Structures are given as structure tokens and as C-alpha cells.
Amino acid sequence: MTILFTQVMPVGVPVEMLDAVSDDMDVDNDPPEGLIVHTHFEKDGRAHIVDVWESAEAHQRFADSRLTPAMGKVAAARGFDPGQAGEPETSITDVHRIVRGR
Predict the structure, then answer these.
(1) Which end of the chain, N or C, is less packed with Cβ atoms under 10 Å?
(2) 33-73: pLDDT as tens digits
């Protein structure tokens, strides 16, 4: 089942860190299997992520194999301790319908 995956990152996680993680994984040239669309942005001083995935399992495979290692690498390089920031606010919603643009 297709899912909408959203996260609001903890205060103190800058959108530039999400850029660095995306760059480290080279997702622009090598998008993860099962990803339909990804976006991240800053709103009200917090970084937000909105993704559409073919399935929750596809997202989990990506998180385990690429995302978590890249986040750890980028955080360490910036002297950022994710454990101190807290957990993001995460929501997963089943998608009923997708309309793709041309």
C-alpha cells in the first residue's frame, strides 16, 4: 500500500542538515527504490519532510540501509548528537489515490 510519510524534525535540526544527508546519499542521482516523491522544507523554524512511498516496507528498507547511516555520518561531522535532539514527530498515512503530473 502506498503511504504518505511525514516528519517534523526536532527544534535545532536545520534544513541544511537534511540537505547534507540527501547529498551524502546522492539521492538526486540514485533515488531509493520505492520512493515516489520526496521534499523537505523549513516552516515555523523547524525542518519538515514529506515523502510518498510505494510501501511502508520500501521506506523501512531505505531507512535501514541508507538513511540511518548517512544521518549518523552527517551528524558526527557536524558535532551534532541526534540523541540530544529527541525524536521527530512522524506520521504514516495510507494513500488512497495518486495523480502524477506530466
Answers:
(1) C
(2) 999 999 999 999 999 999 999 999 999 999 999 999 999 99
